[in-house]
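in:
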């Protein structure tokens, strides 16, 4: 399965959850196509590759799709995540309640500032960075979200690697790359540069694409 298909499956899964929440039991390919920004043909092709078949007139059973797509996305158990850096972005992530329906739970935050990790008003515990390895092991954490300043990014990332982290979502200004460990690239890293994304939006506003360029 390529990365594009995996992204589409994630969109399908989220859309199905919303449809079930409003009481629907069946869905058609064109409904999920709108959610993923693709054609109904691609939705049917994706499902066919996954061995999922619906009825031409009856559509797909939502509970069946959720079960099968959930298995592919590893939704059977709650996945614990930690946040490194509890500034504004870190706090926003810790206060966000929308992860748990997708089987993701932010279980701890870490910071180097005593005023931050001694503050008991956080919705989840915040620890000094010196306790990273201990807490990761106790909570079976495999994924971390980095929201630290540029100057602290490299040290935090290396500490996570040394602690055996398997996945990193990086919000810092520094682009992080996996390292070669035992002949394999580790960890899985996704970089999200908010400033860069905004610059791209402003560029596209200044030089809008023609309708034909989007195909």
């Amino acid at each position: 399965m390529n990365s594009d298909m995996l992204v589409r499956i994630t969109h399908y899964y989220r859309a199905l959850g919303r449809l079930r929440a409003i009481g629907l039991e069946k869905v058609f390919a064109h409904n999920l196509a709108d959610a993923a920004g693709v054609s109904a043909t691609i939705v049917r092709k994706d499902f066919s590759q996954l061995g999922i078949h619906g009825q031409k007139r009856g559509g797909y059973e939502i509970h069946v799709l959720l079960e099968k797509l959930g298995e592919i996305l590893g939704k059977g158990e709650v996945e614990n995540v930690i946040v490194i850096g509890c500034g504004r972005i870190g706090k926003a992530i810790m206060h966000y309640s929308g992860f748990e329906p997708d089987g993701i739970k932010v279980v701890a935050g870490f910071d180097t500032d005593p005023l931050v990790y001694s503050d008991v008003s956080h919705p989840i515990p915040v620890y000094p960075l010196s306790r990273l390895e201990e807490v990761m092991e106790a909570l079976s954490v495999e994924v971390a979200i980095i929201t630290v300043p540029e100057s602290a990014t490299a040290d935090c990332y290396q500490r996570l690697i040394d602690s055996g982290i398997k996945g990193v979502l990086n919000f810092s200004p520094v682009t992080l790359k996996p390292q070669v460990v035992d002949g394999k690239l580790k960890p899985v890293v996704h970089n999200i540069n908010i400033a860069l994304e905004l610059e791209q939006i402003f560029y596209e506003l200044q030089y809008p694409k023609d309708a034909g360029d989007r195909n």
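note: The two ends are 23 Å apart (CA to CA).
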